């Protein structure tokens, strides 16, 4: 433990020694490690699953009804301490177990407890959402370069603007409608841009993307 972590030679050894086991593998391979986990799991072990689409019932069917499962949908932004974790728990998870996991997740982001029935829906607003933003950034940057900007200069301007916009949404006390309305000046540039995007189906594209994301999450749970 000199470096603050220990490397185990097998999943079996790791699960036997851990009070909380974090499962962060893809839905496509999770079934293949279940038997190793089942043999090593104690009644006290808390199982924190980050795997999209896999529900609490799925774990209970493989590990037993009494297993303590917390399902979590994380975001890649935890890497910079700004994670947004959506969690739900099995009835077998005590408040103390839950608080321990919440404390651990809170070290790198915010934690919201949500009904398990919304765990696939939430992927579309947290887990996958950073990619929507990165994709939008790529499109905007492409246009910026076309207009003559240096790419890194445009990136700094755009990303800082988005960071500030998110900060205002979270901490200004103003609603998203009020904030948008503040920019919708009659005859102004912003309104012209929003009208053009609206006419080309921007809102509809976003809604359809969100729906596709949720559907895929549900399919992953059935693989
Ligand atoms: N990426 C994201 O932003 C988000 C991901 N998620 C969820 O997190 C989970 C992991 O995603 P992500 O980290 O991106 O995926 P990666 O493919 O980057 O990582 C998968 C990990 O699983 C390990 N692994 C694969 N097969 C086995 C196995 N048989 N036994 C043990 N370990 C194995 C891999 O180890 P090795 O490298 O050694 O092969 C790798 O560390 C997914 O379920 C995804 O739905 C949720 C929200 C956001
Ligand atoms: O794309 C995926 O399947 C995972 C879930 C959320 C983000 N990445």
The CATH architecture of the largest domain would be: 3-Layer(aba) Sandwich
CATH topology of the largest domain: Rossmann fold
Q: CATH H-level name of the largest domain... which superfamily? A: NAD(P)-binding Rossmann-like Domain
Shape by Cα distribution = elongated
Structural class: alpha/beta
H and E string: HEHEHEEHEHHHHHH
What do these coordinates show?
The protein is α/β, with parallel strands linked by helices and 223 residues long. The chain has 10 helices and 5 strands. It has helices spanning 11-17, 27-40, 56-63, 95-106, 119-123, 129-147, 151-171, 176-183, 189-199, 202-220; strands spanning 20-23, 46-49, 68-73, 83-89, 109-113. A 5-stranded mixed beta sheet has the order 1-2-3-4-5, sandwiched between helices. β1 (20-23), α2 (27-40) and β2 form a beta-alpha-beta unit. α1 (11-17) crosses α2 (27-40) and α6 (129-147) packs across α7. The longest helix is centred in the C-terminal third of the chain and has 21 residues, at 151-171. It starts with 10 loop residues before the first helix and ends with a helix. It is an enzyme of class 1 (oxidoreductase). Its EC number is 1.5.1.2.
